[in-house]
């Protein structure tokens, strides 16, 4: 019996996972415990959870694998330092910092002092982890693997062919060229300054026109081999002045990536306090189009090289669900897999599975497939009851009724009826989702038929930008009837066009361009959520519900106490905690 602990440490979206004999046991991001979005640092609480879920201690872990290797690409790093003019003091400070963080055994002693670790530590290069996290848990025995992100271990993209239990890395794009940096710089330029705000640009883009796309050819240049290069005069990250990404007190941040030359090309940047104008929407649309052009140029090149019709994606850019949704129509690939934590958190899984196979996992890949995302903490009925009892006075002051319903069909039918009446539902079930998407276990649910539901959610709970769309969770067998593309999208990682004749029926989940970022729900993957959606279909004829994450400007709720807090401080109508329904 072999246990491997996989880590993403001292980087945004710190996380841990546990693999037992080539099978995933648990996986969770540290932010869910720390309650700070994108928390970076050492994932001690995530580690504790994974060990508890398996019923073991750190002494039982044979190997720890981390998704970073300071030794990777060292000659390229040295060459860049010698030719770029970066301050030697800056380089030394960064090396010292990385050296301290690379001491995984020391960090385990410091952060888990009550436990001992006697196993081996494995540093796995960042993009190898991304590629492994996509391919080694995919349903394919052979697939092209592509990783695209900001930077990790001095490269921003990598690609190769996955076969059996290995992924061969055949191509890379190195620092300072990066599609992730391009997209983040444009995100900052449009006035979204926080780490992880790129999804706002993706949501804003359909409201604009791509009138800056030709100008942006100066910013991103594509090459015949699929690689790309940045027009570095538009960026600051390639100098010591701009290379100041850091994690302080667990909060990741970075300096301004774009240079003043960008204002000469696109006009003035937007101050975050200023209102959005058509020009900003047009820049967002053009940035999305520029990313897609480079992305599909890369996909075309790797398909010509390898000839495989299956594709797996990872890296932070794998969260660009708009581009992902076009893979089958804009590239020769016929099959696509993106696991639920495609970004840096998912590197923990990549490190663990890459290590498992390197250590002599089966020569023919054991067919573990990540076909669901429910790998995090759950709550027992007793824990839920205790959490409710602790807040009984608050529920009473809100005039809430509390009812436990043991029969699942009745629970789902009553919840579906509330949704059909326009109520906003907090839905807390089973194990927490792995990755950034709420997928029916930590979700806020609403009626997709109501044109005003988007405004209701933003008013009652989310308090977010009005242009950001909400997602439909749809029964898998109903996809071809409602969407122009038929496919499995269990992790909400692709945007498909909704059939034109159906858009008026589900305005709350139809984006301005007629698309929806769907989640397909199966009875085998999440039977209670499927039963709820089936109940809603029985009542309304619509086989989907509006689904958004169960949170309010915070990480997705993890424990019942956090779900109760969110319910009580917002204007949510109903809270379903396991088998208990709480109604205002």
Kindly describe this structure.
The protein is of the alpha/beta class and 584 residues long. Helix content is 34%, strand content 21%. The strands form five sheets. It has a nine-stranded mixed beta sheet with strand order 15-23-22-16-17-21-18-20-19, with helices on both faces. Helix 7 packs antiparallel against helix 10 (278-306) and helix 16 crosses helix 19. The longest helix has 29 residues, at 278-306. It starts with a strand and ends with a strand.
What's the total helix number? 20
Question: What share of residues are in beta strands?
Answer: 15-25%
Task: From the alpha carbons, calculate the radius of gyration and give it in angstroms.
Answer: 23 Å
Low-confidence stretches: none
Outline, from the CA principal axes? Answer: globular
Mean pLDDT: 93
Biggest sheet overview: 9 strands, mixed
Query: What is the number of E strands?
Result: 23
